[in-house]
Fold this protein.
Amino acid sequence: MYFSQFFASPFVRQGVLALLLTPLFSSAMAQTAPQTPTAKPAQEAAKSAPATPPSDALILARGPAGAVVRLADVLSELRRAPASDREGVLARPDVVQQIANNLLMRRVLSAEAERDGLGKDPIIAATMAVARDRVLSDALMARLDDQNTPTDAALDAYARNIYQANSSRFEKPAQTRARHILLANNGPESLKKAKDLLTQLRAGASFEALAKANSIDPGSAARGGDLGFFGPGQMVKPFDDALDKLSKPGDLSEPVQSQFGYHIIRLEERRKKGLQPYSEVRDQLMAEARTAILNELRQQKVQALSKNFVFESDAMAALAKPAAH
C-alpha cells in the first residue's frame, strides 16, 4: 500500500445483484452515460419514436401457466431509485431481463405456493396483508411529502437556523496542504537519489515534474506530488515531524525516512482552525432541512391518527403467560 493510500484509502462496497437491485442502478448508470444526441427535426423525431404502450399492457417475460412480468412490475422494483437511474437501467435490455427473470421466478414460485395452500396459513396471510399495508402507507406518505414540499426560502431559513444553533459542528481543525516525492528505500543509493533531487529542487527545478517522474506514490505523483489538505495526525509521525519544521509555503524538507521510503516534502499552505462558512455547507444543510420539515409533517399525521388507537392490554398481557398444557 502506498503512502497516500495509507492515510486516505477509499473502500468501495458493492452489493450482489440477486433479488436486491440497489447496486444495479449505479453500475448501470456508469455504463450508460448519456451521449450528446444529434438533433433531429421535430417531425422526423415524432415519426421515428415508437409509441410506448401503457405499463400494464407491455409484457416483458412469460412463464408457465400464464405467468407474465409486465413493465409495471419492473418499475415497481425501481421505484425507490432516482428517475435518472431508472432511465439508465431501462436503457439496458440485459439488465431489464435479469430483473424480469427475478420477478418471474418469484411469480412462478408464488403460484406454486398458492396451489399448495400456503396462502391459507394465517401467519403467511397476515404477512401478505402487512406487506400490502406497508406499500400503500409508504405511497400515502410519499404523496404527503409531494404535497408539502417546502420552498427554497423556507429551506434556507431552516438551514441557517441549524447552522447558527450548531456552530461547533462546523468547526474545521487546522489543516495543511503539502506535496511530496516518495522514493523506495533500497539502501544508500535511495538516500543519495533523494539528496540529488533536493539539490535540483533548490536550484529551481519543478517539484511537480520531479514528483511525476520519480515518486513511487502513484496517487499523489499523478498530481505533481500534491497530497491535498489533511489534519494533524493523518500522516505517519516522521512525515508530520518534518512538516512541522517548515514555516512558509515553498519550504523544502531534508529527505525524511518512514516505513514507506524517503520523502521530500514541500509545504504548500496552512489553514488555521475556524468555522466553515455557511456557503460551504448550505447544500448539505438544505437537504437536512428538507428531511426535517417533511418528517415533522409526517409526525403530525401519525400523531393525529394515533389518538384514535386502542390497545387490548389484557390480550397482550396474556401472551406473556405460559401456555396451558
User: Anything to note?
Assistant: The chain has 14 helices and eight strands. Residues 172-275 form a domain with the Chitinase A; domain 3 fold (CATH 3.10.50.40). The beta strands are 59-62, 68-70, 171-172, 175-183, 226-230, 256-258, 261-271, 274-275.
